[in-house]
Design brief:
By secondary structure, this protein is of the alpha/beta class. It has a single domain, classed as YjeF N-terminal domain (Rossmann fold, 3-Layer(aba) Sandwich), CATH 3.40.50.10260. Helices cover about 40% and strands about 15% of the residues. It contains eight helices and nine strands. The strands form two sheets. Strands 4-3-2-5-6-7-9 form a seven-stranded parallel sheet, with helices on both faces. A two-stranded parallel sheet has the order 1-8. α6 links the parallel β5 and β6. The longest helix is centred in the N-terminal third of the chain and has 18 residues. The radius of gyration is 16 Å and the shape is globular. It binds ligand LP7C6HRI and potassium ion. The site of ligand LP7C6HRI has 29 residues, from α1, α2 and α3. Ligand LP7C6HRI binds next to α1, α2 and α3.
């Protein structure tokens, strides 16, 4: 799908798929996680020590689900969680519950991020709405300072998916698995540089033009 969409389009296609078509948000999240996981394996990253850096929005939920997919295959994975888990979205709270069932370790030690062989960037996606600061910025700077490979989910965190601009600081990803369609910000020089190799994942979300033609 070579079409590129805006944040508003991504959010409206998401809502249309969930509310009008009736595919549950957790199904979309699972498909997003499976797509990211499959790209992780296909792109042959060093999965000796994987750390998922996640916040508490649905981008974080995607990452926590990827951590579970790695854990059930006995891959060494830990989650570095940013933000207050009690403020997580419903889907991300559910992913945290599942992660706890599988005893996935949570770390608060930034050295675990720095010493990872591969980092999954699940901090922010299309919900980024202001410059990244504080502990979020500290984590982004640590990710960018490591020799680890970095795989971003949906949008490299800190990149405005509409303008391609860096909001404060932004993850410099080796690759990005973006959901449904490319985001227009990824077509700019700065956006392209931070996205790295781009994989577009078909997770069952389509624009009205595509959906109407299927009827
Ligand atoms: N559309 C799809 O195809 C699917 C998208 N999925 C994933 O969901 C995210 C979007 O999730 P959302 O909860 O809307 O937002 P984020 O997770 O990107 O952001 C989290 C949250 O963080 C707050 N926030 C924004 N900017 C800042 C900041 N600078 N500092 C601190 N906090 C900030 C704000 O409250 C946001 O809500 C999408 O990218 C996909 O990864 C679905 O999982 C699958 C289908
Ligand atoms: K991200």
């Amino acid at each position: 799908m070579s079409k590129a969409i805006t944040i508003a389009q991504a959010q409206s296609y998401d809502a249309h798929t969930i509310n009008e078509i009736g595919i549950p948000a957790m199904v979309l999240m699972e498909r997003a996680a499976l797509a990211t996981f499959n790209n992780l394996l296909n792109d042959d990253y060093d999965l000796t020590r994987v750390v998922v850096v996640a916040a508490t929005g649905n981008n974080g939920g995607d990452g926590i689900a990827v951590a579970r997919l790695l854990k059930v295959r006995n891959i060494d994975v830990a989650i570095y969680l940013l933000g207050d888990p009690t403020k997580a979205t419903d889907q991300t709270a559910q992913q945290l519950k599942i992660a706890n069932y599988y005893h996935i370790p949570f770390t608060t030690d930034l050295n675990d991020v720095i010493n990872a062989t591969t980092i999954i960037d699940a901090i922010f996606g299309v919900g980024l709405s202001r410059p990244i600061t504080g502990k979020f910025a500290e984590a982004v700077n640590a990710i960018n300072a490591t020799d680890a490979s970095t795989v971003a989910i949906d949008v490299p965190s800190g990149i405005n998916a509409d303008s391609g601009e860096t909001l404060g600081v932004a993850v410099m990803a080796d690759s990005t698995t973006t959901m449904a369609y490319k985001k227009v910000g990824m077509l700019t020089a700065n956006g392209k540089q931070h996205t790295g190799i781009l994989h577009v994942a078909d997770i069952g979300i389509y624009g009205a033009d595509h959906v109407e033609t299927i009827k």
